Amino acid sequence: MKILIVEDDRAISEVLRKLFEQQNFIVEIAYDGNSGFAFATATDYKLILLDLMLPQIDGITLCRNLRNQGITIPILMLTAKDTSLDKVKGLDVGADDYVVKPFDPSELLARSRALLRRGQVLKSSILTWENLKLDLDRCDASYQQNPLKLTPKEYQILALFLQNCDRVLTTDQILDQVWTYDDIPGREVVKTHLRSLRKKLKALGAPHNLIENIYGVGYRLNPNY
């Protein structure tokens, strides 16, 4: 699941990156308002963490501009200010929630998950498909109640399939959602990760084609299982 952080303080942005990557989110960062607008209008993010004080375009204006473009991605505003006026301004232009810095990491994650569920990206923190189970809060994966030891990319790919269990995903869609803009590898990397993921699932008793290849189109969870 890919999120965007718009924060000009690089120390804070790196803290946020590590915090969310530890929870298996894919994180991209913009360091000013103009870049934030370009990123948010070009990519299908599931959540935006938006600082109030930004160079070029401030967070209030950026939030307003995104909403005026019809972008409905949940927005969580971050700021060092703690006045009612600032909160009202943020909410009035379309922000969904507001956290004051310095923030508590557990609270920030909880508020982020709440916004994702409110946006119907995550109806539940538990994703299941037949004998497959992912607990997004605990970052656990299992098959037939046996722990599934996955790399971060394998976990993110499997989560993407479980969040889109009725869809065929193309290689480009997987690359777009699981890798960051500045770190997109060749398309063969997707095949390599899927091969490893299938091998680990098969070792726990899953059919080899639980994730099936739709020739010339992409991949999906096999509806016959």
UniProtKB/TrEMBL annotation:
> What are the DNA-binding region positions?
124-223
Q: Which InterPro entries match?
A: CheY-like_superfamily, OmpR/PhoB-type_DNA-bd, Sig_transdc_resp-reg_C-effctor, Sig_transdc_resp-reg_receiver, WalR-like, WH-like_DNA-bd_sf
Keyword tags:
DNA-binding, Phosphoprotein, Transcription, Transcription regulation, Two-component regulatory system
Q: Which residues carry this modification: 4-aspartylphosphate?
A: D51
Q: Where are the transmembrane segments?
A: none
Its GO biological process annotations read: regulation of DNA-templated transcription
Report domain Response regulatory positions.
2-116
Source organism superkingdom: Bacteria
Molecular function via GO: phosphorelay response regulator activity; transcription cis-regulatory region binding
SMART domains from the UniProt entry: REC, Trans_reg_C
Domain (OmpR/PhoB-type) ranges: 124-223
Cellular component (GO) terms are: cytosol; protein-DNA complex
One family from Pfam that matches here is: Trans_reg_C
Q: What is the protein's given name? A: Response regulator with CheY-like receiver domain and winged-helix DNA-binding domain
